[in-house]
Amino acid sequence: MHVVSVAEGLAKLGHELHVLVSPSRYPPRTHGGVTWYNMPPPFGVRQLRFVRALEVSRLARTVKPDVVMERYYNFGGEGIIAARSVGATAVLEVNARVADVPGSLKQKLDRASLVEPLRRWRDWQCAQADLIITPSEKIIPPHVPSEKMLCTDCGADIDLFHPAAIGDVPFTKKPGDIVVIFSGTFRVWHGAVHLVDAIRRLHARGRTDIKGVLIGSGPELPNVRKAADQVEGVSLLDPVPQPQLPPILAAADIGAAPFDVSVHPALAHEFHWSPLKVFEYMASGLPVVAPHIERLTKIVRDGREALLYDANDPDGLANAIDRLADPVLRRRLGAAARARTEEEFNWRTHCRRLDEAIRAAHARRNFSRADSPPVPSGANQ
Question: With a threshold of 0.85, does the pTM exceed it?
Fold first, then answer.
């Protein structure tokens, strides 16, 4: 959704987009200013993605782009190389840590090689980029100048996700039920099992009117299912195509984002995510319950769009949900959450920021090249 929303959003602002994607769920087509290309990594192994570098550069020479924008990956860099091969402005979008967590296994392995090839390669990419787009400066190496960074969060499609969305809802909501929803990937640090445990605790207090609906799949699903089997009123639903999700969120009462950073060293060091689920909850008019994490407080403010709890308190999530049983509080926080997405956390605003930053970086690069002294005759070029 991030890739599609950015590509289509920039196209609406007048840009022509050529997008290389993997996996191959987007067949090559031209629509609305966006041309999609299927370019999966060899044998479907993303760690081999760089093998496509020559192919990417060949396509760049055919398209002759003004800008090449690459999503950072540990074993990537082919977009930056393609940009340099055609003299285009290089934009690096960073949603994962570039700077290693001190003492991490990746850092230890890199240093064991003495020359630190991974760090050097990452530093080269950052140095070659004319613009770096990231949700957090803390995941970028400290030597990268802040003036070539755009720190911005993602957003939601506020036309698709809204409180009045109508459509099929694959769960039953009886009068008086309060439905807490989780939508996303089931990985241990997403904390879905914590939502199941919170509902179990609430039922033990007699709050059987509070139900849970969890949508998605992932490696943690078996553990979540095992926990849910012990709790009445918790439903697990298969992943839902994006266009079918808005009415499901709109039919719920509370959006849960029970992240568990304690089991993910990089996130514990710096929560760098720009969580789409939170923006989509907010756009749907749902108050959010989430742990009190510094970066999250800049997206959802405690007592304004969300209730934030202490993740170290075993009853923290349950208590926050219990407080949101108050319909007046739910409506106030939910309305504020929707207003905040309309004002700031939506794809139109995100793409306008990208447009301005990319144009500025492109202009700086062209000015720098025009201002450079001529190369003496006979010198290597």
Answer: yes
